């Protein structure tokens, strides 16, 4: 499933394709939505934003198209008189005179108004979205101090979308590594410096992943390894997916564990188990 940075990049692409131009085509695969499509013709997409892994397209008449890709949804783009060659099922088409933004295979598409956004069950549950809110590390650290999160282990908490919306499995491992934290540690166990390190790591890696297309490793190291002929899968992350390979900083072998039912990777030297 794409994580927050991937969806943020998609939002940018959708905006580039169809924002601020009259919609010449609005088509939904679902009949209950298609009955309302005609009323959206000639409206404009005035904003495309994310909340975690959800995408919201705000139209000039106050309508909002809410989508969630789940595991299989994918946005593709084309000229308005063409469709990409794909075996996927088209679920939503938005076309201007110049471009089409096409959502395939997604099962969650809703047409709501701005007021319903405030009461939508998924959106109500979503936690702090570092990307769409454009918060700084200090504001993230303040969020981390919320009492409701204090006693939960970080390895579980970081996958909870009511905590940091948009963080998924690869970002969980990478954030914990960069912050030097073990997945079993809890926020209540961290001093101010470690809280700040966690907030800074989350902020840095979310935005780095947006700008690099999912690469979280150090930029200078990435460039050097890429120039040396390393495969993307081997230089992309600090620890995620690198079981048995040497940590870039200390040469300790990266270990893989299962936490909250998902694979997690860490460096045993940088992220030792906390003392009992």
Give a written overview of the molecule:
- This protein is an alpha+beta fold.
- It folds into two domains: 4-125, Alpha-Beta Barrel (N-terminal domain of MutM-like DNA repair proteins), CATH 3.20.190.10; 130-266, Helicase, Ruva Protein, domain 3, CATH 1.10.8.50.
- The chain is 32% helix and 20% strand.
- The chain contains eleven helices and ten strands.
- It has helices at 4-18, 31-34, 114-117, 121-125, 130-133, 137-144, 154-157, 169-179, 192-212, 219-227, 232-235, and strands at residues 25-28, 45-51, 54-59, 63-68, 74-78, 90-95, 100-104, 108-113, 255-259, 262-266.
- The chain has a four-stranded antiparallel sheet. A four-stranded antiparallel sheet has the order 2-3-4-8.
- A hairpin with a 2-residue loop joins strand 2 and strand 3 (54-59).
- The radius of gyration is 21 Å and the shape is globular.
Quick recap of the structure?
The chain has 276 residues and is of the alpha+beta class.
What key phrases describe this protein's structure?
276 residues, alpha+beta, N-terminal domain of MutM-like DNA repair proteins, Helicase, Ruva Protein, domain 3, 2 domains, 4-stranded antiparallel sheet, 10 strands
CATH class of the largest domain: Mainly Alpha
- Strand order across the largest sheet: 1-6-7-5
Q: What shape does the CA trace take?
A: globular
Largest sheet: 4 strands, antiparallel
Oligomeric grouping of the chains? single chain
Beta strand count: 10
Count of spatially separate domains? 2
User: Strand fraction band?
Assistant: 15-25%
**Which spans have pLDDT < 50 for at least 5 consecutive residues?**
none
Kindly provide the radius of gyration, computed on alpha-carbon positions and rounded to a whole number of angstroms: 21 Å
**Which CATH-level-2 architecture of the largest domain?**
Orthogonal Bundle
Percentage of helical residues?
25-40%
Mean pLDDT, as a whole number? 94
Helix/strand/pairing category:
alpha+beta
What fold name stands as the CATH topology of the largest domain? Helicase, Ruva Protein, domain 3
């Amino acid at each position: 499933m794409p994580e927050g940075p991937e969806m943020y990049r998609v939002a940018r692409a959708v905006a580039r394709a169809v924002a601020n131009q009259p919609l010449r085509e609005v088509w939904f695969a679902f009949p209950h939505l298609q009955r309302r499509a005609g009323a959206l013709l000639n409206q404009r997409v005035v904003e495309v934003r994310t909340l975690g892994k959800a995408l919201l397209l705000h139209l000039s008449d106050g309508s909002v198209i809410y989508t969630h890709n789940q595991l299989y949804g994918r946005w593709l783009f084309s000229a308005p008189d063409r469709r990409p060659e794909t075996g996927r099922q088209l679920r939503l088409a938005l076309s201007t005179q110049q471009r089409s933004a096409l959502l395939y295979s997604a099962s969650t598409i809703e047409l709501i108004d701005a007021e319903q956004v405030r009461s939508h069950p998924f959106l109500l549950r979503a936690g702090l979205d570092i990307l769409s809110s454009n918060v700084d590390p200090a504001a993230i650290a303040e969020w981390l101090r919320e009492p409701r999160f204090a006693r939960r282990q970080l390895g579980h908490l970081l996958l909870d979308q009511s905590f940091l919306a948009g963080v998924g499995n690869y970002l969980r491992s990478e954030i914990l590594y960069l912050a030097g934290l073990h997945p079993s540690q809890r926020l209540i166990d961290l001093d101010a410096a470690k809280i700040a390190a966690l907030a800074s790591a989350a902020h840095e890696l979310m935005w780095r992943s947006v700008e690099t297309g999912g690469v979280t490793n150090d930029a200078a190291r990435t460039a050097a390894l890429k120039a040396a002929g390393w495969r993307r899968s081997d230089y992309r992350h600090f620890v995620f997916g690198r079981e048995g390979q040497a940590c870039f900083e200390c040469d300790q072998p990266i270990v893989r564990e299962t936490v909250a039912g998902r694979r997690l990777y860490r460096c045993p030297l940088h992220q030792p188990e906390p003392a009992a």
